[in-house]
Specification:
169 residues; 5 helices; 0% strand
Length: 169
């Protein structure tokens, strides 16, 4: 139990720190990627969607699991507080409150990691949907341009005298 008491905070903070670092790294990478992507070079919408969604699962997983890591740290902290009370044989209000308040810092840190990660995930998801819409608009414009070119080519061939000029050559 002493090992847990000595290293609980370090372990919880290390895990949450790693989660925070990964969420930030993936977020920065996605924002840079989204700013440089040329959606018109994609022929199929699903290949674009795959590229846009790469890395978002990690950010969402961190956002949803960081509070649980913090909660786990809190549960262990409360267990240690009760263990110390049991070992001392006395119930001292001050030691109980200090132990519980120290245990709750893990939950606070878990929320501190989760809330920005969820905000980043939502922002990146919205940006990915915007890029998908830009692809659809570009694709529709390309189809309309090709349709107009095809229609104008047919209209030129159907003009009176259009066949004679080609026959004289």
């Amino acid at each position: 139990m002493e090992l847990l008491k000595n290293y609980l905070d370090i372990a919880v903070f290390a895990v949450l720190g790693l989660m925070s670092f990964l969420a930030l790294a993936y977020t920065i990478e996605r924002f840079i990627y989204y700013s440089r992507i040329d959606v018109t070079r994609y022929a199929h919408p699903e290949s674009l969607r795959i590229d846009l969604n790469r890395g978002l699962t990690m950010i969402a997983s961190i956002a949803s699991n960081a509070p649980y890591v913090g909660l786990l740290g809190t549960v262990f902290g409360i267990m240690l507080t009760f263990y110390d009370i049991g070992q001392s044989g006395q119930i001292d209000t001050q030691s109980v409150m200090v132990g519980l308040s120290l245990a709750l810092k893990a939950t606070a840190l878990g929320l501190l990691v989760a809330i920005p990660a969820m905000m980043f995930y939502n922002a990146l998801t919205a940006k990915a949907e915007t890029l998908m819409s830009r692809w659809k608009i570009a694709r529709d414009q390309q189809v309309a341009r090709q349709t107009r070119q095809t229609m104008s080519g047919e209209a030129t061939r159907n003009l009176p005298g259009a066949g004679r000029t080609q026959a004289r050559r």
